[in-house]
Specification:
With 366 residues, this protein is an alpha/beta fold. It is built from 12 helices and 12 strands. Helix 1 links the parallel strand 1 and strand 2. The N terminus is likely disordered.
Length: 366
């Protein structure tokens, strides 16, 4: 009945050689869809340099992408493609033209120079997104921005986790270190947690792991690593493979993630999966959709002294850290962030595709 598998095009943009949650989402989506459909994944090299944006967007717009039966676009500005059946799983805007416009995260000083460009980018977003048959957002935080800035409605689909190892409860350890797995960048604010080490009382370490943005690392992190009150309390790793990351998740006391208004952040559900509670800040965005204060984690203001107090609170009361970690795992299990559910939602605007997928899933179960 459903012997003919439909063809799906997955299109996203990427800064070459960068590693992050966006490419994980795209790669895993392609892998999961390919179990039931013929899939073609296309990455378009894309720079967020403001002086290159228009020519890149227009180039994407002018390329022929109307192949296959369905196109799923993700990272900006992949949704500029022309396709007769385009849906968007929206990751984020080019944020320095939106919610970051009045913050220190804008990558240029002369904003007046880019006012017209900002208007053009918003115009493009409005046009290309409204062409879509359906728009999904990766979080409520992203959904809120889309509605506020573009007056566009969307449905939230959290990106599920991927390739996680199964483990038994005895595998879990709660050793004397906190884990901060994230790209080292201004908006991730690792410097706040490193500064917090000046004020901690517990005998523990902080392990930070992630690809470095050199300007941020040299400006904010490197000077702190030479501080005599800090250098023996911290280990900074570069990008680590999945196996090493999972090992650190399994063994840490708790996870710390202190970004500014994160879109989603795999780190939160990952830490919950490994039964670890999360310390985060009250302006962290995406993590706040998962963390309940003093139940599945600790939410504080982005202040090094308060971060230090939160770390000490868990270090000197490990039973509390363990209990909150277990509650975090229970909460994640209830959400049921599975790829079968995700694929069904993404293809639900096309009844034939949805039926094909349901058939393939039921066949696998049999």
């Amino acid at each position: 009945m459903f012997s003919k598998i439909k063809r799906i095009l997955i299109v996203s943009t990427k800064h070459p050689f960068s590693k992050g949650g966006d490419s994980v989402q795209v790669d895993t989506l392609a892998e999961e869809l390919s179990k039931s459909f013929e899939v073609e994944k296309i990455y378009i090299p894309f720079s967020t340099d403001p002086d290159l944006l228009i020519q890149q967007i227009e180039a994407i717009r002018n390329l022929k992408f109307d192949y296959g039966d369905l196109a799923i676009a993700l990272r900006p500005f992949s949704y500029a493609i022309r396709h007769h059946n385009k849906i968007v799983w929206f990751m984020h805007h080019i944020r320095y033209f939106y919610d970051l416009w009045d913050t220190n995260f804008v990558p240029f000083k002369n904003k007046d120079k880019y006012l017209k460009l900002r208007e053009k980018i918003i115009q493009y977003d409005n046009q290309f997104l409204r062409e879509s048959k359906k728009i999904f957002s990766i979080s409520n935080n992203v959904k809120r921005r889309l509605k506020y800035y573009n007056n566009i409605d969307s449905e939230v689909i959290y990106p599920p986790l991927y390739n996680l190892p199964k483990y038994q409860e005895p595998d879990l350890k709660y050793q004397d270190f906190f884990f901060f797995p994230s790209r080292l960048a201004d908006n991730k604010r690792q410097h706040l947690v490193i500064q917090a080490l000046k004020y901690t009382k517990g005998n523990f370490k902080l392990i930070i792991a992630g690809q470095k943005e050199e300007s941020y690392f040299n400006r904010e992190i490197l000077p702190l690593l030479n501080d005599t009150h800090i250098k023996d309390k911290i280990e900074v790793m570069d990008y680590i493979d999945q196996e090493k990351k999972f090992e650190l998740y399994l063994n840490c006391l708790a996870v710390i993630f202190t970004p500014y208004d994160e879109d989603y952040g795999y780190i939160t559900p990952e830490s919950f999966y490994f039964s670890k509670c999360l310390i985060t800040t009250n302006d962290s965005g995406g993590p706040l959709e998962f963390v309940e204060n003093q139940k599945t984690g600790i939410i504080i203001q982005p202040d090094p002294k308060l971060i230090a107090q939160a770390m000490d609170e868990l270090y000197f009361n490990k039973e509390k850290a363990i209990s909150m970690g277990k509650q975090a795992k229970e909460y994640l299990d209830k959400l049921d962030l599975s790829w079968p559910n995700t694929i069904k939602k993404l293809t639900s605007n096309n009844n034939i595709l949805s039926k094909i997928f349901e058939f393939m899933v039921s066949k696998d179960r049999d």
